[in-house]
Amino acid sequence: MFSICYAALSFIGVALAYSAEVDDQGWETLQVVPHVSGLRVESPIGEKGFIGYTEAWELIVEPNVPVTVIIFGYWLDRVEYITFTDSICLTSEFNISRHSFTLQTETRIELKMSFPNGEDSWRLCVKQQGQLGELLLIDDDRTWINTKETHEEHYFPISVQVGILCVLFTMSALFSGLNLGLMTLSVQELNLIIKSGTKEEAKNAEAILPIRMQGNHLLCTILIVNVVVNAAISILLEDLTTGTIAFVASSAGILLFGEITPQSVCVKHGLEVGARTIWITRFFMFITAPISYPISKILDYLIGDEVGQFDRGRLIELLKMSTEAGQNKEMATEVKIAVGAMEFANKVAKDVMTRIDDVFMLSENDILDAATLTKIIHRGYTRIPVYVEGDRNKVTSLLFVKDLALIDKKNNIAVKAVAEFNERQLRIIDEDMPLPQLLDEFKEGNYHLAMVRKLKNISLSTDDDHHSLENYDEIQKDTADSSQTHDCVPLKETESDTLIGLVTLEDLLEEILQSEIIDESDSVIDNVHRYRRRAHQTRVSEVFCCEAKSDPLSLNMLQVVTRWLTERHVFFSDRYMEERAREKMIQTNIRHVILVTGKEEKGVYLYECGVASRRFILILEGTATVSFPKINMSFEVGPWSCFGETLFHKISASMRSRQDTQASSFTPDFDLHVQQTCRFLQLPTLAVVRALRLSRFVKQIRTPKASSSEEDDPVPLFLGGTGRSKDTLSAYLLGPHHTSLAARIQQGMNRSSNSTSVALKLHASSPALAELEEEL
Asked: What are the residue boundaries of the CNNM transmembrane domain, all occurrences included (predicted)?
């Protein structure tokens, strides 16, 4: 049971009438009477019976509400009954006998009762046992019980006080949000928004900037107002409710509505909220100035001004973070380049160089023959380091590809001769040379390639004197002076110096762009991590000396080849083959073989003994070797040597006998292989038959009356008596590669007479025929 008690601090003496008794010896004794020391009232559980105390320390209880009254004192077990009266004991309205007590001991009496509402206080009267016992009034205000209806007093009327609480909660939310929203915006950020933000953002930033420049004054104002407002909320809630409810309500209200909600909004929209409430902030800065301004000046003196500048490292990380979260993807490329440009100054040559193992070099003893020139062309480099004595660590000069423009591969000139004649400038730099300094040298245009080495002991030597340089800065100063005169300072390397790589202007640009610049000839696509291009991205057939398609022939060479073929076989004459069909057949079947170092011994086989072949070969440039394994004999053949002419006779025979010409082949009893660069014409069976069919078909459409004897014609059209209907005639003549074109011509034939000869009288200007001529 919840109870609130009052304990009397002074002993209450009760003057009772007593009768004196004298014993045989003459002693006089007094009669023992009860003494009341104090009174306490307890409320029932869940009810508000006991209210409190008056200013005179009278107990206040709710009228007509049962309460427990507890009386404390001495010799209370001698009490016969008690009463409560509003005047004197003789007119008491409540008489409660000892039998109604819930508890009676020598020091305590408990009883339950309710008190009606009255103007005067209820006073306690006590009656002791016996006939001579008197009913005495306990005249102490601290034992009186008051039942007058009391009204709680508040600071303001309830409606006004609730309105004030709403305003205070709003102010708490505002200043809590401004504390986060304004103070997290630095002066530099506001200036940046003014210059680069949208029109609305710039306007808001201009409004906030003047007060944000008063950093500590603004901070003190916000904190002072926030603390005062939160304290006022707690006091007003305590006045409206009890202590526990006030504590819970004020804590929850300030947390939810004064901290979490406003700060979550202002962390994203602080600029807009701060600009729209700027007049409120200025007002409270003025009101709190007597307190906030002195404190802010003390803070300025002790702590100093704000530090809002971004150094290079922070700015780089800020740019990286702007795209790491998956946002601003459209700016990813620009940010990548900006980061690369800013990090460029922190890197040195060894960070971007191509490792020496991946550098393409030539020995000064190499011969510039066809194989070497082919290797240079396919590697695609325009500047090639040249080393001596077979040691890749001893690079002495550079070979430019443009130096080879007038070199004849048949002259077998050594690399050393070309390099010494041109005397290209070679720059050797330290591995720790900063990239900006190297870029400045490259921009002068004297050279765009430099070798990188580990610098341990190095000396500069000239014809006049020798200077020992103890540090890298002195070396770079001297070499920079020499580069201005376009002369290369000779460097004398000690045995401990080692070349570790190569760096070019392209490497520096890649580092700035943060992306690899890959051309069609690059084999290493990342010179730092040594990632190589996948095989399918290059023409493996060309790089590894296999047979491949070649460029078309020149006009003069085409005429020579045409005349040669016409003289060799009637197939290629104008009578049987259209000029455009013959030209396209030749140009699309020009092939070549290119060899590089490491493949000369094996070569490329064009024919193999005992292996059936379906192509005719005419060598145009270069040489090839013919070998007869059965008789162990071989000889070399050159231009205008042909092989597989038997195929032409088989094609003619197959067409006359109405057999499948596409299966025509022959089996050579020799090997034909290429060990040097060779260019040749190949005529597959299918290509020849296709050209003949197209030519014959076009000729019959243009001049249907012109005919020749099938016995003398090596390319019969198979009209009439062949068992083929007009539905399959055009498709047969044009072959499987022209089914759509054949279908269009067939539609024209179906609309004509049933006679095939009439069907061939299609006008030469028809769309199908025009497309057929274009195909030729």
From this structure: 154-335
* Size (the chain), residues: 776
| SS3 per-residue string spanning 344-406 | HHHCEHHHHCEEHHHCCCEECCCECCHHHHHHHHHHCCCEEEEECCCCCCCEEEEEEHHHHCC
In tens, the pLDDT along 507-551 reads 888 888 877 776 655 555 555 555 554 444 444 334 445 688 888
Listed as own residue / partner, the contacts of 137-142 with beta carbons closer than 8 Å and 24 or more positions apart are 137/85, 137/88, 137/89, 138/12, 138/14, 138/36, 140/8, 140/12, 141/56, 141/57, 141/58, 142/6, 142/8, 142/38, 142/39, 142/57, 142/58
User: ∠ at Cα 197 (196, 201), nearest 5°?
Assistant: 150
DSSP 679-735: EEEEEEHHHHHHHHHHHHHHHHHH-TT----TTT-SS----SSSS--HHHHHHHHH-
Q: Which of 729, 731, 737 is nearest to 760 (CA)?
A: 729
pLDDT digits (tens, 9 = 90+) for 249-269: 888 888 888 889 888 888 888
The residue type of 472 is Y
User: Which amino acid would we find at residue 215?
Assistant: G
Amino acid at 716: P
Torsion of CA 348, 352, 356, 360, to 10 degrees: -140
User: Please, what's the b/e burial string for 640-668 (b: 16 or more CB within 10 A of its CB; e: otherwise)?
Assistant: ebbbbeebbebbbebbeeeeebbebebeb
Reported as a pLDDT band with limits 50, 70 and 90, residue 65 is confident
- What's the number of CA atoms in the CB half-sphere (13 Å) around residue 115? 32
Radius of gyration of the chain (CA): 57
Residue 419 has pLDDT above 60, yes or no: yes
Indicate the average pLDDT of the chain: 76
Q: Is the pLDDT of residue 192 over 60?
A: yes
pLDDT tens by residue, 386-406: 999 888 888 989 999 988 888
Question: What's the CA gap between 57 and 472, in Å, rounded?
Answer: 96
Q: What is the DSSP letter of 259?
A: I
Sequence-distant (≥ 6) Cβ neighbours of residue 771 within 8 angstroms = 741, 744
How far is CA 174 from each of CA 178, 204, 223, 271, 430, rounded to the nearest angstrom?
6, 17, 12, 13, 61
pLDDT of residue 524: 57
Cα–Cα distance between 387 and 426 in angstroms, integer? 12
Q: At 576, is the pLDDT very low, low, confident or very high (cuts 50, 70, 90)?
A: confident
Give per-residue pLDDT as tens, 464-487: 433 433 444 544 554 444 444 334
Query: Residue 197, class by beta-carbon neighbours within 10 Å (0-12 exposed, 13-18 middle, 19+ buried)?
Result: middle
Which residue reads 């057939």 in tokens?
541
User: How many CA atoms lie within 13 Å of 276's alpha carbon, on the beta-carbon side?
Assistant: 11
CA gap 349, 413 in Å, rounded: 35
Structural domains in the chain, sorted by start: 3-146 (2.60.40), 158-303 (no CATH), 312-344 (no CATH), 349-537 (3.10.580.10), 543-691 (2.60.120.10), 718-775 (no CATH)
The listed range with the strongest mean pLDDT (115-119, 488-492, 503-507) is 503-507
